[in-house]
Amino acid sequence: PPKCTDDGWYLMLRVPEKKKFIGQKRYWTPTYTRLTDGNTLQLFYEKNSTEPFKEVPLQSSYSVSEPTLQAYNDKGRIHTVKIEYVSYKEKRLLRPRAIIDHIPLASTLVKFGTLEYDDLLNFVRAVNDALMKLPAYRDRGTTYIEDEITVEVTDEFRAVVGRTGEIEKQA
């Protein structure tokens, strides 16, 4: 498959997204995926298509799973990642004191794959960056006994280091 480009990624989409009945086969279909300024993933059958066949508007309650490897075909394995809707359920843990824990419940919205690991990492970074910029909101129907805030901090540094150990270029 072609490498990612400046305005999108050549990715495989897992279809159907959810099995409708037992024994239903799933397969990978090639797509060209763009991330718009309006924080929407647009999926096209071809790069030159004008209308997407599917759009996934990103929300602050979505997350991107860690990249994994899974069987693809007789030629090898495919790097995959899921865009998931995450909600939380309170669970009371009975220890010496009653402690309330928040258990994440994730449901898969779409699953992407590619044979090019670097393209997948580039896609994950772009989607995560878009998710971090979205305003956070709380579902009105959800009430908790105890509120909990989890903060995930990631610091990335990319550079080209020369043979002498000096940084030649940083991104």
Which SSEs are present, and which pair or pack?
Elements (H helix, E strand, L loop, with lengths): L8 E7 L11 E9 L4 E5 L9 E4 L4 E3 L3 E6 L2 E19 L3 E17 L2 H17 L25 E3 L5 E4 L1
Antiparallel strand pairs: 1-2, 1-8, 2-3, 3-4, 5-7, 6-7, 7-8, 9-10
Structure description:
The chain is mainly beta. The chain contains 1 helix and 10 strands; from the N terminus they run E-E-E-E-E-E-E-E-H-E-E. The strands form 2 sheets. Strands 1, 2, 3, 4, 5, 6, 7 and 8 form an 8-stranded antiparallel sheet that branches. The chain has a two-stranded antiparallel ribbon with strand order 9-10. A hairpin with a 2-residue loop joins strand 6 (about 70-75) and strand 7 (about 75-95). It is globular. About 15% of the residues are buried.
Percentage of residues in strands: over 45%
Determine the mean pLDDT: 85
Low-confidence stretches: none
The outline comes out as globular
Distance between the termini: 26 Å
> Could you say which structural class the secondary elements and strand pairing correspond to?
mainly beta
- Report the major sheet: 8 strands, antiparallel
Pattern of helices and strands: EEEEEEEEHEE
Question: What key phrases describe this protein's structure?
Answer:
171 residues; 1 helix; mainly beta; single chain
Briefly summarize what is shown.
The chain is mainly β. Helices cover 10% and strands 45% of the residues.
